Amino acid sequence: MGSQELKFVPIQSNRSTLSPMIHGQKVVVVLPAYNAERTLERTYREIPLDLVDDVLLTDDASADRTVDVARRLGIETIVHERNRGYGGNQKTCYRAALERGADIVVMLHADYQYTPALIPAMVHLLASGEFDVVLGSRILGGQAIRGGMPVYKYVSNRVLTLLQNLLMGAKLSEYHTGYRAFTRRVLETLPLDRNSDDFVFDAEMLSQILYAGFRIGEVTCPAKYFPEASSINFSRSVRYGVGCLTTALKFRLSRMGIGRFATFDFRQP
Predict the structure, then answer these.
(1) What is the model's pLDDT at position 167?
(2) CATH architecture of residue range(s) 7-264
């Protein structure tokens, strides 16, 4: 993953100097954030700091006081001087986590949509060596709509997931969760800088994980839906859906040897 000019905000951490380390593995939670002033503290307060070694936030040129809240909470923060998009934000998060020696990286949205209470389960599944990636699935358990997911989001999620599973030969319950955990090996293997800086980054990354043959586990994850939680408008949702299907089709063509795409070329440039 290539280097980029970033602004680091010096913050005195409130964390203890004692490292919890799970099975000798350093756990880092990354928070890609954009205008998360009203939800960041709730998210951070529920992170199990007795299990997590470091918390790192990347602010994607927020227009609100996200960085000020992070400073008050003592969260180590990287600030993008210009907005780089959801995918661009994640690239910075993962690069920084690896530079800090992370063995396990948990990506948690700062908008409080996903509960931090699942971090222990996700981390232990990775630390056990049974999985390389763990996803927090809103679909497992069958409570997505009852939990507040809009019906149109649920339907589009299910249709996209069905088509992606068919094209990529997988059996995941959903591809569109924003709650994910990875081992260091996964993040070092995938050519993430070749992926989009927009929302389709998630689909591209997951397709690369499947292409590389990494083992994926899923845990049931309730999600919250409220005005402060981030979402994308209809036109961007359509572009995202098209991007997901295009990525899945490229996966299939690459597997069949018909096409060659940089997304699935894991050789060093």
Answers:
(1) 97
(2) Alpha-Beta Complex (3.90)
Contact 199, 238 (CB under 8 A): no
**9 beta partners:** 77
pLDDT digits (tens, 9 = 90+) for 33-51: 999 999 999 999 999 999 9
Cβ proximity of 58 and 77 under 8 Å = yes
Four-residue CA torsion sign, 222, 226, 228, 230: positive
Q: What is the pTM of this model?
A: 0.89
